[in-house]
Design brief:
This protein has 10 helices and 14 strands. The protein is α/β, with parallel strands linked by helices. Strands 5-4-1-12-13-14 form a 6-stranded mixed β-sheet. Helix 7 links the parallel strand 12 and strand 13.
Length: about 325
């Protein structure tokens, strides 16, 4: 059996996991308080480009979350870091509320294109301006390529379709800085004194949160909130296509999506608690579904949880 690695850090997605717009996910504040009691480092990671970090923190504080600004790592931060490294002047296709995170970045006579979620700017004139800049050699930088995100009234298009349109029109491949890129997760862990194998990512996006974390060497946990909360037909066409083979009987290292637990005697189930489903490396057996209360409420039992994670990584789950 491989040496077990203690769980040292937990990365938590924000939109769809802790809150949806101006509403907290029920029980999330208390869950976070419990998580704070565990001997682990907590970081919050998000692809949101709808607002700057300052406004995001204000929103979370109003919702009752005890989070410090230095605990949040956003895709806007990752984009700014790349712009500074490349020393380019971007055409910023981002929401106006996100612009404070780019204060000090020169934007005159742009020689790069940065695309985030910018509904007010996704018009023909601006897209054509970006198109021409890219044709002239400007690099295309995607803050992220999410296809959709969760709003109170349903799913909404993310920046991904617009980035893909520019890629198609120009024959150029965008540089992506947000989730699910490996570099994003590694950057989020910087300063935690924690290796990817000692961290777990919790989020509502099968591809960007869970898949991205796994690709970076972390463990991933998919929650049944945010993007996950869809009707069955949407789940089959969106979630299953995001993770091919996710519910396949030939994929023993993944837990099923969209089906009820079948082996209740083997579950650590708590009543009236939204379920969290594990994916690769958590408990290994497709029938083993861990509840939110195990992850959030009992995560202080770090020795047990980390042993379970490490044992399954080594293929020793029964």
């Amino acid at each position: 059996m491989a040496a077990r690695r203690a769980l040292k850090a937990v990365l938590v997605d924000l939109s769809g996991t802790l809150h949806v717009e101006d509403s907290a996910v029920p029980g999330a504040q208390e869950a976070l308080k419990r998580l704070r009691g565990a001997p682990v480092t907590v970081r919050f990671v998000t692809n949101t480009t709808k607002e700057c970090k300052r406004d995001l923190l204000e929103r979370l504080t109003k919702l009752g979350f005890d989070i410090a600004e230095n605990e949040i790592f956003t895709s806007l931060t990752a984009a700014r870091n790349l712009l500074e490294q490349k020393q380019v002047r971007p055409l910023l296709l981002v929401d106006d509320k996100a612009l404070p995170d780019f204060t000090g970045i020169a934007t005159h006579d742009p020689n790069a294109v940065v695309v985030g979620l910018a509904p007010e700017h996704f018009n023909y004139e601006m897209m054509n301006k970006a198109f021409r800049l890219i044709l002239d050699g400007a690099p295309l930088i995607a803050i992220h390529k999410a296809r959709y995100f969760k709003k109170k009234n349903g799913l909404a298009l993310g920046p991904g379709p617009f980035v893909t349109g520019l890629e198609y029109a120009t024959g150029t491949e965008a540089t992506v800085v947000g989730k699910p890129e490996k570099t994003f997760f590694l950057e989020a862990l910087r300063g935690t004194d924690c290796a990817p194998e000692e961290a777990v990512m919790i989020g509502d996006d099968c591809r960007d949160d869970v898949g991205g974390a796994q690709n970076a060497g972390m463990r991933g946990i998919l929650v049944r909130t945010g993007k996950y909360v869809m009707d069955r037909s949407c789940r089959e066409t969106v979630v299953h296509q995001s993770c091919p083979g996710y519910d396949s009987p030939h994929a023993p290292d993944r837990a099923q999506v969209g089906s009820e637990p079948r082996a209740s005697s083997r579950l650590l189930q708590m009543p009236a608690v939204p379920a969290v489903q594990s994916t690769q490396g958590l408990l290994g057996d497709p029938e083993r579904i861990v509840t939110e209360q195990l992850v959030w409420g009992l995560i202080q039992q770090v020795d047990f949880l980390s042993c379970g994670l490490a044992a399954c990584q080594a293929g020793d789950c029964d």
